[in-house]
Amino acid sequence: MKITDLLSQAESLPVEGLVMLVDVRLRSLNPPEAAIDRKWAAVARRHLQEMRAGNIVAVPGEEVFAKIWRRFQGMSVRFHPDAEEEVSTAIQCDEDVEPGLGQNFAVELHAAVQPAIANPLA
Question: Looking at the whole model, is its pTM more than 0.90?
Answer without folding.
Answer: no
